[in-house]
Amino acid sequence: MLRNALSTDDFLWPNGVVPIQIHSDLDAQRDLIVSALNHFHEETCIRFKQRTDEPDFINIIADEGCYSSIGRTGGEQSISLGDGCLCKGTIIHELMHALGFYHEQNRSDRDEYVYVIYEKILEKARHEFNKLPAEANRLFTDYDYESIMQYSSNAFSVDGSDTMVPIKSGVVLTHPCYKGGLSSFDKLKISKLYKCQ
């Protein structure tokens, strides 16, 4: 039992308040993005706010692919929502990265829960499956197959076949797009990391 979050509070957003701006290239998707932001407001103590003059903020852009820094990096940092990224689950996933969370399959204990088939993973994406050092294990929650941070079973596959197989029988690893939002453990992890009251 452990966790996949930043090992220091230095990279957390003070008081769980995150200034953001949404690039005009995403105006047509603004309602979808706001829906993902509101999911955090409804389910957690995290509060996203329109940036005014805050020096540390997230700029949500339409670059190539889906990506985010892990935690608050200082200054402007980008979340990219390019082609294939514009579903609520993926937006929530990228926001979780910006809050300080890694992928579930990056946990140092993940081999007890999923079997990773490296030969089926695109070479350029193999780093997405690297295990974290034990120091990142600070929240001590169960492995969460339902986490918005858990990749699907065929993520980054060279041929569409499985790149991860759950060790527990009957478990299906689904894409974040097909999840309803944050899992109960995701909410617990946010609460622990940000000391929600």
Automatic annotation (TrEMBL):
Cofactor mode of binding and number, as noted: Binds 1 zinc ion per subunit.
Name the catalytic site residues: 94
GO BP term, pick one: proteolysis
Source organism superkingdom: Eukaryota
**What PROSITE patterns does UniProt report for this protein, alphabetically?**
ASTACIN (PS51864)
Instruction: Tell me where in this chain the Peptidase M12A domain is found.
Output: 4-197
Q: Which UniProt keywords apply?
A: Hydrolase, Metal-binding, Metalloprotease, Protease, Zinc
Q: Which cofactor does it need?
A: Zn(2+)
InterPro entries with a match to the protein in the record:
Astacin-like_dom, MetalloPept_cat_dom_sf, Peptidase_M12A, Peptidase_Metallo
Q: Which residues bind Zn(2+)?
A: 93, 97, 103
Question: What's a single GO MF annotation on this record?
Answer: metalloendopeptidase activity
SUPFAM superfamilies per record? Metalloproteases ('zincins'), catalytic domain
Q: What class of enzyme is it?
A: hydrolase
So what EC number does this one have?
3.4.24.-
| Its job | Zinc metalloprotease. Provoques deadhesion of endothelial cells from cell cultures, and also degradation of fibronectin, fibrinogen and gelatin in vitro. Its role in the venom is not fully understood but it might act as a spreading factor that facilitates diffusion of other venom toxins. Alternatively, it might be involved in the proteolytic processing of other venom toxins or it might play a role in extra-oral digestion of prey.
Q: Tell me how this protein assembles.
A: Monomer.
Name of the protein: Metalloendopeptidase
